[in-house]
Specification:
Layout lengths: L16 E5 L2 E7 L6 E9 L2 E5 L6 H15 L4 E5 L5 H4 L2 H8 L2 E4 L1 H11 L7 H10 L4 H10 L3 H4 L8 E2 L5 E4 L2 E8 L6 E6 L4 E3 L16
Parallel strand pairs: 4-5, 5-6, 6-7
Antiparallel strand pairs: 1-2, 2-3, 3-4, 8-9, 9-10, 10-11
Length: about 220
């Protein structure tokens, strides 16, 4: 990489937070696979808080969230979750947030539909069907069996998905904490991934659409 990114902060310990811009708190949570962490965001939002991406469905992450809320949030409620895309490390605890805190889930509609298709293991998320097709086209059957043992992790990584959603569309302006955040939807990593850009802070929350060292996984083209 000819122009490596400049990291102004050291990596946080899991469950710790850091205010990286006024009202924008970085949260680092663990993941139970090779990619061992995820960056999530907790934004001050007037009389409450907005969470951007929730993390994978584990007791450990729920405990970390409770600890964060206990020391940082105070009496202000968690008002909503904004989900960048449907993958379980981002969506995983949205249902728990709704049940525990009464939050409203905001998400693009294509990602919302993909989440429910994955949750119900519809034909578009039929791992057995995928592997049968791949083996017929030359994949080593032992690789297929290993993949099926590891996947699908969607059900394990996700609480029951809320059945209602506040739809986010491209170029929507979302007010969070008195500042405007513009929604930027894009394909590639997922069907209608939402990134959020705040011009006044010069901050982009890019989910998995832009990563610092590697090219994001291209799942949709």
């Amino acid at each position: 990489m000819s122009n490596p990114p400049d990291y102004p902060h050291d990596a946080l310990e899991f469950g710790e937070t850091l205010e990286v811009a006024p009202g924008v708190h970085w949260v680092r949570m663990p993941l139970p696979f090779q990619l061992n962490h995820i960056n999530l965001w907790l934004l001050e939002d007037g009389d409450g808080w907005t969470v951007i991406d929730t993390g994978y469905n584990t007791d450990e992450i729920r405990d970390y969230w409770r600890a964060i809320f206990g020391r940082l949030v105070g009496d202000k409620p968690i008002k909503r979750t904004i989900i960048t895309h449907f993958h379980p490390d981002h969506l995983g605890l949205a249902g728990w947030f709704e049940a525990e805190f009464g939050t409203e889930m905001w998400m693009s509609y294509a990602e919302f539909l993909q989440a429910h298709l994955a949750w119900t293991q519809s034909v578009t998320h039929d791992v057995d069907g995928w592997m049968e097709f791949f083996v017929e086209n030359g994949l080593d059957p032992t690789v297929s069996q290993r993949y099926k043992a590891e996947r699908p992790n969607f059900g394990r990584g996700t609480t029951k998905i809320p059945i209602s959603v506040h739809r986010i569309c491209d170029d929507d302006v979302i007010e969070i904490g008195g500042r405007d955040w513009r929604a930027i939807t894009s394909g590639g990593h997922s069907a209608e991934h939402v990134s959020l850009y705040c011009e006044s802070l010069n901050v982009l929350i890019s989910g998995d659409q832009v990563l610092p060292r590697i090219t994001t996984n291209i799942s949709v083209w």
